Amino acid sequence: MGNRNYAVVCCIIGSFISIISGYVTGVMSGAMLFIQEDFKLSDEQVQLLTGIMNVSAIAGCLTAGQVSDYFGRRRTFSIAAWIFFIGSVLMSFAGSFGMLMAGRCVTGVAVGYALSTAPVYAAEISPAKTRGSLSSIPDISINFGILIGYVANYFLGRLPLTYGWRAMFGISALPSAIFAVGAVFLPESPRWLVMHGRVDEALDVLQKLCATGDEAQVLWNEAAPPEEWSGGLGVWKEMFLHPTPPVRRMLVAGMGVLFVQHLSGINGVQLYSARVFKAVGIASTNEILAANIGVGLAKTVFILTAILLVDRVGRRGLYLSSLAGVIVSLSCLGLSLTVIEHSKPNQDVPWPRAAIASVFTFVASFSIGLGPITGAYSSEVIPLRLRAQGVGVGVAFNRVANATVALTFISLSNAITMGGAFFLFGFLSVGAATFFYFFCPETQGRPLEEIEEVFRQGWRERRHNLHGPFHVFKHTEMR
């Protein structure tokens, strides 16, 4: 049999598209400071430019599943990389706000493809025992890309005004082109190969991915025979017109976790960190960009920690602990900003330090569970035959919530104060925790073909069997 490390390497290489996605997201946080000055943009234009990428990402999400099912996972990676290349070139050579918007929209489509395809690919080539860790690699890659974007902000921001922000966008074109060519050399998902009747090729890939015959047998069982795959309209009908009760519960859980992720307001810090730090009292652009790097490092370190823990502790324990930290951090941040906003000028109070600490505990709490587990969990619980398009729809919901925060954060902060905005996100996070507690069972260590059995138990019966946030649903509890 093959080497188990081969699956790890494939997940890492396939997640390179997520690094690019994270970079184009993170780099905007600092680039907007220079773009606003160079093009003399209003706050409303900055808000629109920042958020429009997530609106266009919805189109990418809704089409990525069909493209992925037709062309394959690795060719979809290549398509997304070429779209990233075009968007990067458009933005780096933009001579007007309209051209910037066009480049940002093109980039958003690629983000939708990357977010929909990378977790599906990782889930389909990973053995059950390590699927939680390997399926989290796309998320750590996104955050690594965000960190690189923050570092690019800091160093390229020292260039002359009109060249610095262009370089920030332009440098992503080269790795996009390289990955677009290199992605075709990745092994195709065995699941996709079997769906298209290429059984011999699927067996060859399985032998490379699995260290033992038992692991290969489990992955083989997870790949449904071609005749069970309806594709196209059949997938949409099963998802939305005639879903069985277990499938409906799986879709609610899988799509639901993707939607509630951004109710925490992570984009308020991720995209508008410069404004948050200014509100705290950091005035220097270099200090703001350096603080951004600190935020990126905190996210990366805690996501790495989550990857080490997710297959030991389980999804529910990490996710609910993460949300508890998010709620406390958002409450402290909202309180700190409110006190700062009502303080007298030059008044020496400890609240700025408390606010900065709350920002870091917020991103750390988000990154230990709510960030990495969302993509992994949704890829696990959505049924195999519906996964590519189901995850695409779920990520579209994710982008709707993401875009709502991105497009309204400045206006919301002006209307109810920035402190009030974070109090609101804390309240919404309580709703996210309630949803996950009642509707999302544990999937740790289960082969994908067994997960549908977990959802055969109704929500009402399941609530009666809950014993705490770390409860695992045992085989004996299933009907």
UniProtKB/TrEMBL annotation:
Cross-referenced SUPFAM superfamilies: MFS general substrate transporter
Organism domain of life: Eukaryota
Location relative to the cell: Membrane
Gene Ontology CC entries for this record: membrane
All copies of domain Major facilitator superfamily (MFS) profile, residue ranges: 10-444
Ranges annotated as spanning the membrane: 6-34, 46-67, 79-100, 140-157, 163-186, 250-269, 289-310, 317-340, 355-378, 390-410, 416-439
Topology in the lipid bilayer: Multi-pass membrane protein
Entry keyword set: Membrane, Sugar transport, Symport, Transmembrane, Transmembrane helix, Transport
MF (Gene Ontology): symporter activity
Protein family (similarity comment): Belongs to the major facilitator superfamily. Sugar transporter (TC 2.A.1.1) family.
PANTHER family, per database record: PROTON MYO-INOSITOL COTRANSPORTER (PTHR48020), SUGAR TRANSPORTER (PTHR48020:SF49)
Name of the protein: Major facilitator superfamily (MFS) profile domain-containing protein
